[in-house]
Structure formats: C-alpha cells, structure tokens
Design brief:
Blueprint lengths: L5 E6 L7 H11 L3 E6 L9 H8 L18 H7 L2 E7 L1 H8 L6 H8 L3 E6 L3 H5 L1 H12 L3 E2 L3 E4 L5 E5 L3 H14 L7 E6 L4 E4 L2 E3 L6 H12 L3 E6 L11 E5 L3 H12 L4 E4 L6 E3 L19 E3 L3 H8 L5 E8 L3 H11 L4 E6 L11 E2 L2 E4 L4 E3 L3 E2 H18 L1
Bound molecules: ligand PMT.
The site of ligand PMT has 28 residues, from helix 9, helix 11 and strand 16.
Length: about 400
C-alpha cells in the first residue's frame, strides 16, 4: 500500500522512541522510502545508527551536517515527503507545533511540510490528560494534523493509564488508510488557474492586482494529493510547488492565460478558476520605457481582456465541471449568482475582497459555495489548504453526478 510513498518519520525524546525502529522496519516492508528526522534528545533514547541501518538513509538531526557543514534544508525535506509522521511525539513537541515554535529541524520541517502530518503522542497519563496538552492536540487537529491516539496500559512511570504510543502496526495501518481513502480524484485531470495577470503598459510598468497565488496553489496541491494530474496555469507569483502530480505553466498576461487554458481544458475533467485575471489591459503597449517628462497628465486607454472562465464555460462538455471564484465587496451573493450563470459554471466560490484575514494575500479565506441549484453553503474562516479541501469535496460530488 505504501509502495513509492516518501514517508518522513520524526522522532522526539521519549522512551517510546525504541518502537521507532520497528516502525521504520514496517514502513520499509510496506514499500515506503523512509527518512528519519530526530530531535537531539531522541538520540539519547535510540541510536541514529539503528535507524540509518533500517531506513538505508543517513539520519537528520541538525540544520547543518557537523561533519561537512552541509545545509539540511527543512523546505526540501518537507517537500519530499508524501506524509510526515511524528512518532513518538512528546507533550513538549506537540506544544511547540501548536504554537509555531521552530527551534529544531523536526519542527521547522513541520512548518514547511505541505503533506499530511500524523502525530502519535507518547507521555505520562497526567501529561496527556492535561488541559494544555489536550488544547494543543485540538489546535493541531483543527489545522488538519491527524492524531493517532495513544493506547491505555502500563507507562514508563510505572503508572497505568492513557499515554502509551500506539503500536507501530496500528500507526502503519493509519498511514495506509490515509493513502487508500485520499484518492478521490485518481485518474482525473484538473486545470487550475492561480495568481494575478500582469498587463504591460511599457517594458517596466504593468496593471496587476494583489493576488499571491496562495489560494490557487493550495487547490492545485489538494487536487494532486487526491490523485489528480493537475495543470496549474499560474500568473506571476512568489509561491512555488514541487508536487510531482502538478505541471506548472507560467504565464504573465490574460491573453497568455487564455491561450494555455484553451490548450489544456479539452483534456481535463474539471477546471478551477482561482486566478485574479485583470479585466482590462492597455490598448497600446509601448516598446520603450515611457519618460516621465514626455507624458505629464498621461491617459492610458484600456480595452477589456477576454473572460477566460466564460470562454471555458462556452466550450464545456456535459462531463466537465467548471468552478469559478467571485471576489466581491458589495451585493456579494447577488453578484456571485450573476457570474455563476453568465459564465456557465457548475458552482462558484464567493470570497470577500475587503475582509481582514481572508481573500487576497492572506493565508486564510472565508468562502461561500453557490451551485446551479441555488444551494448556498457558508464556511468559517480557515487556512487556505483547508478551504481547498472544502472546495475539492464539492468538486468531487459534482464530478460524481456527471
Ligand atoms: O491569490 P491569493 O492571494 O491567494 O487570493 C485568492 C483570490 C482572492 C485571488 C481568489 O480566491 C479569487 O477570488 N480569485 C478570483 C478573483 C477574480 O478575478 O474574481 P472575479 O469575481 O473578478 O472573477 C470571477 C471569475 O471569473 C473568477 O473565477 C476569475 O478567475 C474569472 N475571470 C475573471 C476575469 C477574466 N477576465 N477572466 C476570468 O476567467
């Protein structure tokens, strides 16, 4: 079940670390490529040599390899992983994860990882039951981390209770179950647009907008995690993805975005239009930089850009699902419904343009999904990777109905 999967195992300083050797062995037996990250304290409980031998990879502990000064990039490690499993996870590490503290490689990698994260707590029963630990676990679960509950039994302290790290067989089963159920878009091809478009005025100036691409990239990654092959047509953004199921096609202007959308849409099962396409472009693009002195009081004549979503809406066949976004400040529901029907979309994702901690640039978003039947569903404010999951749930239901 785990054949070809890259599993990153994070080990923290707990007596249950001895079980990590068996966990690595079982993961490798299931076909996974396993890399191990340890906190410095974890090395006191189990030797890196044991884990390196079982995983067939050197062990990662420090930001730098002390033998040659080579940089262990937490970003690259996080990108490599299809799943990140922290087992055993101490109360200390859980607390730091929940609060964004990143004072070792295991924790910085947690903040960089874009894959599913699992946490298997191991601690004394009172530490586990403590309201702070329980609140920290709730915070992690709300952020999408899967908690593998500890079992009840004899603990290292000699006390009996809940706090024993779950057995390695059960941890492997939880990871396998995730990969089994997480493939709802297997075999599907999905086009996603993301980011802004830039419409050149001259070689150094353009008309653009504040889109960061975060929403579109989160959607592309969620679709890819669900097994889809994704064509991500992206305007100029700073965000990146290295997901192996995502082909990134970089464009600058709305005309270029339209050209690439038309190229890929016919082979796709669905398209999600998250890009903030500039509605207008300058009628003339100057070949040389416009000099300030020459053009005081300058007027730029604008002409409309093509409506990419509406173009795809007119080409859509009965098996394809087309999803649009509506970025609104006023009459939000009414405007979104207008775009839904005008662009022939299957459903539209309404988000606000004037609310703090949502919409443009933010890591979070607040959405309302409206479909062709008039059904309206509002969601709470949450991180964009979780918003992407809500949108994919809706996309999956629409694909099933086709
Ligand atoms: O990139 P982020 O910083 O994460 O921000 C995300 C976002 C706010 C940009 C995103 O969630 C969003 O709302 N994207 C759509 C922005 C937009 O252009 O909305 P609109 O209401 O103007 O357009 C309606 C729909 O038509 C959109 O699906 C849009 O992609 C599409 N459109 C618009 C104009 C145009 N010329 N062609 C289009 O295809």
């Amino acid at each position: 079940m785990l054949k070809g999967k890259n599993i990153l195992l994070g080990i923290t300083g707990s007596i249950a670390a001895y079980k990590a050797a068996n966990l690595v062995r079982l993961l490798v037996k299931e076909g996974a490529d396993v890399r191990v990250l340890m906190t410095p304290l974890a090395k006191e409980f189990i030797t890196p040599l044991t884990l390196a031998t079982l995983s067939k990879h050197s062990i990662l502990v420090d930001f730098f390899d002390p033998t040659n000064g080579q940089w262990n990039s937490h970003v690259d490690i996080g990108m490599w992983a299809d799943a990140y499993v922290i087992a055993p996870a101490t109360a200390n590490t859980i607390g730091k994860m929940a609060n964004g503290i990143a004072d070792n490689l295991l924790l910085t990698t947690y903040l960089s990882a874009r894959c599913q994260v699992f946490v298997a707590p191991a601690m004394d029963l009172d530490m586990f039951a403590h309201v702070t630990t329980q609140n920290n676990l709730k915070t992690l679960a709300n952020q999408g981390v899967k908690i593998i509950e500890p079992s009840t039994g004899e603990l290292a302290s000699g006390l009996e209770g809940k706090g024993r790290m779950e057995e390695p067989e059960k941890i492997v089963a939880a990871i396998s179950a995730f990969f089994e159920t997480a493939k709802r878009l297997d075999g599907k091809k999905i086009l996603v647009t993301a980011g802004p478009t830039f419409e050149n005025i001259d070689p150094v100036r353009f008309i653009g907008n504040y889109s960061s691409g975060k929403m579109g990239y989160a959607l592309a990654e969620e679709c890819a995690n669900e097994g889809a092959e994704v064509f991500l047509i992206s305007g100029p953004v700073a965000v990146k993805t290295v997901h192996k199921n995502i082909k990134v096609i970089s464009v600058v202007s709305a005309d270029e975005m339209l050209e690439q959308c038309l190229k890929y849409f016919s082979v796709c099962d669905a398209a999600i239009m998250a890009a903030a396409v500039a509605d207008f472009k300058p009628k003339e693009k100057e070949k040389s930089k416009i000099k300030r002195q020459e053009r005081e009081g300058m007027v730029i004549e604008l002409v409309p850009n093509p409506d990419i979503a509406a173009n795809l809406g007119s080409l859509k066949n009965k098996n394809q699902v087309l999803v649009g976004f509506a970025l609104e400040t006023d009459n939000m529901l009414e405007n979104a419904k207008g775009k839904l029907s005008k662009k022939n979309l299957d459903f539209i994702v309404l988000n606000p343009a004037n609310v703090e901690n949502a919409g443009f640039k933010s890591d979070n978003n607040i959405i309302t999904i409206i479909d062709q039947t008039g059904d309206v569903k509002a969601y709470e404010n949450k991180p964009k990777h979780l918003v992407a999951k809500d949108i994919c749930d809706c996309l999956y239901l629409h694909l099933q109905k086709k």
